[in-house]
Amino acid sequence: MSGGMLPGIERRLRQLHSPSIQYFVSVAEAGSFRGAARKLNIASSAINRHVLLLEKELGFGLFERRGRELELTSAGQIILQHCIETVRDFEDVIEQLDALRDLRKGIVRVAVSESFASEIAPEICAEFSAIYPGIRVHVRVSESGKVIDFTSRDECDVGIAFGHTSGTGRELARYKLPIGAVVGARHPLTGRESISIRECFDYPLVIPDKALSIRRLLDEAVDLFRTSPEGNIEATSPRLMLGIARMNRHIVFQSKLGLANDLKNSSLHFIPLTDKNLKPDQAVLMASPRSQNRFAAIEFSTFFAKALERELSGP
Q1: Between residues 220 and 57, which one has the greater pLDDT?
Q2: Which of 188, 191, 221, 304 is 20 to 30 Å from the Cα of 98, by its Cα?
Q3: Dihedral class, residue 50 (left if φ above 0, else alpha if ψ from -120 to 50, else beta)
Q4: What confidence tens digit (pLDDT) does each residue in 266-314 have?
């Protein structure tokens, strides 16, 4: 079509970049007009007026008003998701323009499981930030299954977790992690060079919850964890389990991942397990489908992979 834009496109572009869209997103994030008003430092009546105009223009209600609480309608959810995707697309464009200027800028969204959050991820993120001060790193901590889902759905750019990938996420690297018995410095087993799972049952245990990948591997190797003797503890948190191990009474089953400082200062000891049927735990580094063209995501995932290799190749 000659003579300029397609019919209606200019009007739609004005809608997309209008203040009403910004106010709508702020209300959706805050959950109320007052919360959005405080964030934007604008009168809540003005925000309400803009949202009403947007609803009139679109021909749909965007919020269900239930007293002081607001919930997105189906139409509101569609608009909000579009806004999120539009912002991400714009961030991609900005990164590509910065690349043309040879600037090292951008944002990378990272999701890690708890085992990486206490020791490994903080060190890697701090080192990366020092080398790439122009790249903003946003980190969220969650259980492994959710980390994999976040990455597959493009809610984060890079994910590191335990287990098997699913969905559309791209697997960048996989690491095999032998499982051992972890005990405190004054535990009776300190000094042992190896031990079987069955021998460990002579002492109080911290048993991984069934939701954890390491528990599934233990159950596949031996049929001992179905009943929990008195004095044992069952937990979902690796950090909690290690904290209990430091009290020198219980045995914890984990890999060496994230234990470098504890092993170095001898606050914890790792004893290899001799059970031949016990498979190693596996950690996976993955990236979202759209991250393959983003400078920040590529640089961070490469940096993380190299740092993790160094961590795992240590003593």
Answers
A1: 220
A2: 304
A3: alpha
A4: 999 999 999 999 999 999 999 988 887 788 888 899 999 998 888 777 6
User: In the chain, where are the structural domains located?
Assistant: 9-81, 104-175+282-312, 179-279
CATH number at 179-279: 3.40.190.10
Architecture, CATH, for domain 104-175+282-312: 3-Layer(aba) Sandwich (3.40)
pLDDT tens for each residue of 177-207: 999 999 999 999 999 999 999 999 999 999 9
Strand partners, 251: 205
Same CATH fold assignment for domains 9-81 and 179-279: no
Query: What is the token pair recorded at 205?
Result: 């245990």
Strand-pair partners of 40? none
* Residue bearing the bigger pLDDT, 89 or 279: 279
Residue range 9-81 in CATH 1.10.4160.10 = no
- Distance, in Å, from the CA atom of 207 to the CA atom of 226, rounded to the nearest integer, reads 10
- What is the average pLDDT score of the chain? 84
Does the global pTM surpass 0.70?
no
Please report which residue ranges of the chain form alpha helices under DSSP H.
Answer: 9-16, 19-30, 33-40, 44-58, 74-100, 114-117, 120-131, 144-152, 197-200, 213-221, 238-245, 260-264, 295-312
